[in-house]
Design brief:
Blueprint: H1 2-12, H2 21-27, H3 32-60, H4 62-82, H5 86-103, H6 106-117, H7 124-153, H8 158-175, H9 190-206, H10 211-230, H11 234-244, H12 253-277, H13 279-286, H14 289-312, H15 316-342, H16 350-378, H17 381-398
Amino acid sequence: MFYRFALYGFLKNLRFFDPFILLIFMETGLSFFQIGLLYTIRDVTTNIFEIPSGVYADAFGRKKSMIVSFVAYIFSFIIFYFSTHFSTHAIAMIFFALGEAFRSGTHKALILAYLNLNQMQHLKVEYYGKTRAASQLGSAVNAIIATGLVLYSGSYRYIFVASIIPYVFNLINLATYPNELDEQRMFMKKGEILSQIKTTLKTFFVIFKDRYAVQAILNSAGFTAFFKSSKDYLQPILQVFAMSLPFFIGLHEIKRSAVVIGVVYFFIYLLSSYASRSAERFRRWFGDIVKAINVTFLIGACCLIIAGVSFWQNITIVSVCVFLCLYLLYNLRKPMNVAFISNQISDKVMASGLSAESQFTTILMAIFSPILGMLADNFDVGTALFIFGGGMLLFSLLAKVENRQLPT
């Protein structure tokens, strides 16, 4: 199944609009604040469906949940293609959010279920890290294909339609996963369904009585929220960087930016793929997964601060390099966070527990995205990133994880 899981991650990340999404919204005349509101619509909608989708996955079938997710994604791509206004972008974001809600945590639970069934639990960090590496490789390939599409068409519009193709293939891949990964829940009689839901919900809420589990979820969600709220601001930074280079001067601004953005994102995701594969080695270098998680949170905050100051001072190349470091940190942390959280919660509600982490992420992103957009509108991108990084530094005090004290 390793190659099936890896294929899922590779195809999932062939979202050809990703390297240009902020620029696409800016091109339609949206302000940074409106873009932040779109992200909030996405995150709030995801948040509303996060827990129900996790319960659905645990009670009725994770495969079914993943299929619903990818159908919703495809609908969102179609709407984005025809969208030219904030309102239609918002509708597309709602469908995209449904895809996120039914996907987040669920595929990780499928992987962990496979490892449990095959007595491979000790390989959690390494196995998940390597499947995630395939996802990042997909993102690297995505950047090159997306650049080619923009250069060929001279427009961002067609990349939404092109994104439908790999998602249809992934839908087929998911639909043919082995049924045993859903465990016995797929074969329950109707009379047992309500009882299963009650049991799942009861065990799920027990998670929040354990402060170690809450710390693990908050740390992962906090870093992810700060990263995802700010990562797309690399695109206007790269646009400025592209205009300052003495290359591709004969190309139209969109094509010129696309070349630079595509190349930079290709290397970012190529290195991110290596980072995901190296997560276990990175953890061993720290000697303690708790120390690794806490220290990398602080480093991430410093990266945002440095990126903001560098862009404000017109040292754009430094901002780009620091964002590269931020991407590497995120991909080094993700396998460690998944393994750490999975050690804090019951296997019976793994999808729900990981969805809880995603829910906290979406709540924080719903707050952070418009704030960062408002800061960028009222000041500039550099100042906004500097202030945002300072906020992340303060948040790290709340998100610090601890070693669980076992009874002697």
